[in-house]
Write a sequence for this structure.
């Protein structure tokens, strides 16, 4: 081993990761897929709150404004130079096309200017890989529930970078249901954290909302019926002139979502015989969901994994973790890498 090779081995594989698929401009520096040297997230939430949801055009413009600064800060906080990086990893889908294009173009420009290899990462693969960061012992195979604003997937992680989706939502994603119900009960945007918080003061058994099953596929989800049931309940209260107890509605709705997510996941655990189960995505930061899964996995006698809340919602550290394993498998992207808004997982 010569001097240069020895130095490279000591520094490990350093990845600069970039994420811009929705309303977070994020960059991180990761060593060997599991060690986070920096994790910078510029959240645009306040900017979109007045509109009650993410406005793609506004998000794109803000990403352009912030990306340079966010990447610079990630490198500085990690105490690294761009030229020290072994890989540049970037989310190329799924997500909003404009926001995705900012990250992809920026990463391609950095790669072109420096000659550092480029690896495009699937956003959902990133969410799943967030589990590797704090659980150093976690290795595939395992099952993972990914519940975010755009997705509710039950995924079999067969190996690094090898996925099979065994369940998905037929209509709204879990996070989307949280956001819509929060708006309906007057909590505003973003709904998930607000429902999580107010539910602590409410009674989850106050109102019985339906737990939908998809007849043909026991691992699929459907949340639109639940959302309609909440809206009907609110209309009924209004017509009868009854005061709505926001906390009770929030807690009862949350209980219904959590019940369905846990029940379908544990059915898959039993059927497939998984011994390790993980959760991921923005909704995975929900305190009641985490408690319910801890309990359910204990009952099943299997290991449970969840990322800290900061690694559940969109961030670039998770993209670095996924990018590392793709890189190790030999994945390299060219300068023709494009944003793919409806990129599928495991196909
Ligand atoms: O993973 P994420 O940051 O972005 C997407 O890839 O979609 O997920 C955002 C979603 C939003 O719908 C948000 O309301 C939801 O995750 N969320 C939560 C919580 N924190 C964020 N849902 C329930 N409880 C939470 N604590
Ligand atoms: Zn996400």
């Amino acid at each position: 081993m010569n001097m240069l090779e020895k130095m490279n081995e000591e520094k490990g594989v350093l990845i600069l990761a970039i994420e811009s698929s929705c309303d977070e401009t994020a960059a991180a520096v990761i060593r060997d897929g599991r060690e986070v040297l920096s994790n910078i997230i510029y959240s645009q939430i306040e900017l979109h709150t007045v509109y009650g949801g993410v406005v793609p055009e506004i998000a794109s413009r803000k990403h352009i404004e912030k990306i340079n600064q966010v990447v610079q800060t990630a490198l500085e906080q990690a105490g690294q130079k761009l030229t020290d990086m072994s890989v540049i990893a970037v989310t190329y889908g799924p997500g909003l096309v404009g926001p995705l294009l900012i990250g992809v173009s920026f990463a391609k420009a950095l790669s072109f200017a420096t000659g550092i290899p480029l690896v495009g990462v699937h956003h959902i693969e990133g969410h799943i890989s967030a589990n590797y960061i704090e659980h150093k012992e976690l290795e595939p195979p395992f099952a993972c529930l990914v519940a975010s604003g755009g997705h509710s997937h039950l995924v079999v992680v067969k190996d690094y970078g090898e996925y099979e989706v065994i369940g998905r939502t037929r209509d709204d994603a879990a996070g989307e249901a949280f956001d819509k119900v929060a708006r309906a009960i007057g909590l505003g945007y973003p709904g998930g954290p607000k429902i999580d918080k107010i539910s602590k003061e409410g009674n989850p058994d106050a109102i019985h909302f339906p737990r939908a099953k998809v007849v043909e596929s026991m691992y699929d989800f459907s949340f639109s019926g639940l959302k309609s049931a909440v809206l009907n309940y609110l209309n009924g209260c209004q017509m009868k002139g009854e005061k709505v107890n926001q906390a009770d509605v929030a807690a009862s709705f949350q209980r219904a979502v959590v019940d369905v997510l846990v029940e379908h996941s544990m059915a898959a655990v039993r059927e497939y015989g998984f011994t390790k189960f993980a959760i991921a995505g923005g909704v995975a930061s929900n305190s009641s969901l985490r408690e319910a899964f801890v309990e359910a996995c204990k009952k099943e006698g299997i290991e449970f994994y969840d990322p800290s809340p900061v690694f559940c919602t969109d961030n670039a550290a998770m993209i670095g973790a996924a990018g590392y394993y793709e890189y190790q498998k030999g994945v390299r992207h060219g300068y023709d890498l494009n944003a793919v808004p409806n990129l599928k997982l495991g196909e």
Residues 148 and 281 are 5 Å apart (CA to CA). The mean pLDDT is 95. The longest strand covers residues 35-43. Residues 22, 148-150, 175, 178-179, 190-193, 196, 281-283, 285-286, 313-314 surround KG4 (ligand 1) (CB under 6 Å).
